[in-house]
Fold this sequence. Notes:
The chain is an alpha/beta fold. It has helices spanning 11-20, 41-50, 65-68, 72-93, 125-140, 160-170, 187-200, 217-228, 258-264, 271-284, and strands at residues 2-6, 27-31, 55-58, 96-102, 145-149, 152-153, 173-177, 181-182, 185-186, 205-208, 215-216, 234-238. It has a single domain, classed as 3-Layer(aba) Sandwich (Rossmann fold). Strand 4, helix 5 (125-140) and strand 5 form a beta-alpha-beta unit.
Amino acid sequence: MNVLITGANGQLGNEMRVLSAKHAGHAYFFTDVQELDICDEQGVHAYVRDNRIDLIVNCAAYTAVDKAEDNPDLCDRLNHLAPAYLADAAEACGATLVHISTDYVFDGTAHVPYTEDIAPCPNSVYGITKRAGEQEVLKRCPRAMIIRTAWLYSEYGNNFVKTMIRLGRERDTLGVVFDQIGTPTYAGDLAQAIFEAIGHGIVPGIYHFSNEGVCSWYDFALAIHRLAGIDTCQVSPLHTDEYPAKAPRPHYSVLDKTKIKKTFGIKIPHWETSLAECVKQLNEN
């Protein structure tokens, strides 16, 4: 197959690039905005057509949650309109689309893990635009697979893990919210799940993926410092209202992964296991 990976310079895109070496049976086209502006409708159609793309994995998104509140138009173009263009291009060429979405399509008021059949109810610009993108993809490309994920981190780009390590080494004290509950997701594990789904054969629909287990951001920070060998920084738990942010955060965003595990036979590591691997990679680099 000819496989197009958009957002190739991001966290997930970079992990897809690394793992592609183990799946060498396909021809890969790794693009970021310099190679393909996914907000350019005609450009997207031409690229997919001219390169005879069979599968698109859309890893591109506007993910600056707070900045999105001040830049709704740009956020909408990347998270809503661009996926629609990719879906149309895929449909026109008979290609399949794997589109990455987010836990922010929910408002986080639940108390049990979110399954795929729970109605979305986003309450931020980021969440609203990501949900709109999902709807366009499903409407325009019936062969599409949507994967919602949460709390993504990796060795690449900016993320919570790298920030906690940096701040832990710079500061004596640090406050992290303890009343937002979810599950960290190692981008390498999500990339692996995507390749397993491709190998199995894409089954259209919406799926949830994160690592196994549950924690708060506070618990996550403590685990990061422990694994990174940081013991000189005192981490204290904060309430959400003590750490004001422009965009509302889900208080509970645990995703139920039953569907993706059963459909594709995927085994998902616990978040602490994957975090240890990521921190090890960061220390070695």
